[in-house]
Write a structure and sequence with these properties.
The two termini are about 25 Å apart. The radius of gyration is 21 Å and the shape is globular. The longest helix has 27 residues. It has a 3-stranded mixed β-sheet with strand order 5-6-7. Helix 3 runs parallel beside helix 4 and helix 7 crosses helix 11. Helix content is about 50%, strand content about 10%. About 30% of the residues are buried. It has 13 helices and 9 strands. It is mainly alpha-helical. Strand 3, helix 3 and strand 4 form a beta-alpha-beta unit.
Length: about 325
């Protein structure tokens, strides 16, 4: 909200925390702790609604939107996409929804943890499953959905992020590896370090703190991310366990040697660094020069196929 409020469009919001709403208002932002009034205002304005709540609260927000803002377009910033899309489909809201997930954030939560510039050069995933479903059925994509898709892309670019198209399934598979698995590892590593006692706690420095930073995330948020993306996370966790088990066995020998793991890990890190940036506060940031760009005219010839191609390349899109 901080970055959006600096643009040309009117921006206002809801915070269920009265203290959070007051803190935002004190800083000059248009924030209320009255959900119904905020949604009714959005309906009157024809606004686009951005859902930014934990997964367990999405269904309730959607039901309130149906009742109080029945014509508004909807996007979200929830860290899993298929569970959200399932709720959307259950309610018949497909024509009004374009999913989103900015790959940026910190382990902190609440209004006080927000900051300007958080999304600068970060990937902002934008889903397009509904358009692909219509394309595969040989049906035109409704103009209202195309307009909403364009607006979500422009919103992402407006906060200096990069719009990256992805289907809900592939998004969830990817974040299971690079976002949700790190949370599980950070929790486990924190426990192992802590069980080393006061000396381990006193000696813990850069590498340990970097690897465990996200363990500072509120437990309910970690559970919401990981449990709602369990299938993808289990698959990635199995791969991790296999690697760690082999490393353990390689070390528990007459000639301890983990060269295979270290060399392969170093090569993988080099590839990841070549593709992504190094902003420490972001979950999965990107450099502007690091990914291919595809200029896209939503609704134009073969535009859905262009989205599929951009996704396959891990590329970003610019709409015109």
């Amino acid at each position: 909200m901080r970055d959006l409020a600096g643009g040309t469009q009117a921006v206002y919001g809801f915070n269920r925390s009265t203290s959070g709403a007051r803190a935002a208002a004190k800083e000059g932002y248009d924030v209320s702790d009255d959900l119904v009034a905020t949604l009714q205002r959005a309906e009157a304005d024809g606004a686009m609604i951005v859902i930014a709540v934990p997964m367990h609260a999405v269904a309730n927000v959607l039901d309130n939107i149906i009742e109080h803002a029945p014509t508004c377009g909807i996007t979200d910033v929830v860290s899993v996409k298929k569970p959200v899309y399932d709720l959307i489909r259950e309610r018949g809201l497909e024509t009004r929804y374009v999913g989103g997930h900015p790959m940026a954030g910190t382990e902190k939560s609440g209004w006080s943890a927000s900051q300007e510039g958080l999304f600068h050069r970060a990937a902002w995933v934008i889903t397009y499953d509904y358009a692909l479903e219509k394309e595969q059925a040989g049906e035109p994509v409704p103009a209202e959905w195309i307009d909403l898709f364009s607006d979500v892309c422009r919103m992402a670019v407006g906060v200096k992020a990069e719009a990256v198209p992805a289907s809900v399934r592939k998004h969830d598979e990817a974040v299971g590896r690079i976002s949700h698995l790190p949370h599980v590892i950070a929790e486990a590593l924190s426990i192992v370090g802590d069980e080393g006692g006061t000396l381990s706690q006193s000696l813990a420095a850069g590498s340990f703190k970097d690897a465990t930073r996200v363990a500072g995330t509120a437990p309910e948020l970690v559970r919401a991310m990981c449990e709602t993306n369990a299938a993808a996370l289990v698959y990635s966790l199995d791969q991790m366990i296999e690697l760690l088990t082999k490393a353990r066995n390689d070390l528990d020998s007459d000639s301890p040697n983990i060269a295979e793991l270290v060399d392969a890990g170093h090569r993988a890190h080099t590839r990841m660094e070549a593709r992504s940036g190094a902003r420490r506060e972001s979950v999965s940031p990107v450099k502007i020069s690091s990914r291919p760009v595809m200029r896209l005219h939503p609704g134009g010839h073969n535009w859905v196929r262009q989205l599929v191609q951009a996704e396959s390349l891990g590329g970003r899109i610019e709409v015109f």
